[in-house]
Design a protein that fits this description.
alpha+beta, two-stranded antiparallel ribbon, Glutaredoxin, 38% helix, 7 helices, 219 residues
């Protein structure tokens, strides 16, 4: 009887130890980002960076890539987001040294390679700016779960020119979210900005850093 009791006690202790080990090693869940249980494939794409170098699916391999769609004439969301990413760039690289920040221009008409190089370099010399025509940009945006739309005043160009206005003075509606692509070149998560009436939508960087550390740990 004593042997049976001892065996039961031993088995109970073993089970308790296994449960405790499991709890201690349980990965912390991602709290704020839209984190895909199964990373999404990215269809083949071809863009060019601000230095004139081709950028495609292979360029994403081996990197944690933060992708943001915007344009150099953006009055608020783009400069704010890029500034915030510059502020936390060291934190991101401390979590994963193979991190890169990518601005994808959604305004190919005005964003020349030279303009993009000057613009992105202002925020951080390690950041990259990508560009291409709409034939490449639209499917790439849809694939990443983002969107953009240009409302050009072409239909009103005669009226605008008669009043001395430039027909190139237009805005581009675009997502303010950041897409995180994992080192396998797949969409891992989307970080959406905080929305407040009358304020520029901006990513909450403390939450981004917290979730990024968890995602890297889970990967």
């Amino acid at each position: 009887m004593n042997k049976v009791i001892s065996l039961i006690v031993a088995l109970g202790a073993l089970a308790a130890g296994i449960m405790l080990f499991g709890q201690l090693n349980k990965k912390a869940p991602v709290e704020f980002a839209l984190h895909y249980q199964q990373a999404r494939d990215i269809k083949p794409f071809e863009l060019t960076d601000h230095l004139g170098v081709a950028f495609n699916n292979e360029s994403l391999k081996g990197q944690w890539s933060w992708v943001f769609f915007g344009y150099t004439s953006c009055p608020d969301v783009c400069p704010t987001t890029l500034q915030e990413m510059n502020f936390i760039y060291d934190d991101l690289k401390a979590i994963a040294s193979n991190s890169q920040v990518l601005l994808v221009s959604v305004d190919p008409k005005r964003d020349t390679q030279e303009k993009l190089a000057s613009y992105i370099g202002y925020f951080n010399p390690e950041f990259k700016a990508l560009h291409g025509d709409h034939g490449a940009l639209f499917p790439f945006a849809r694939n990443l779960g983002l969107m953009y739309a240009i409302t050009e005043p072409e239909a009103q160009s005669d009226d605008l020119e008669s009043h001395g206005a430039s027909v190139s003075n237009y805005l581009v509606d675009h997502s303010a979210s950041l897409v995180l692509i994992n080192p396998a070149g797949k969409v891992e998560a989307i970080f959406k900005p905080k929305q407040a009436l009358g304020e520029v939508p901006v990513i909450e960087t403390d939450k981004l850093i917290s979730d990024f550390a968890k995602i890297v740990d889970l990967y």
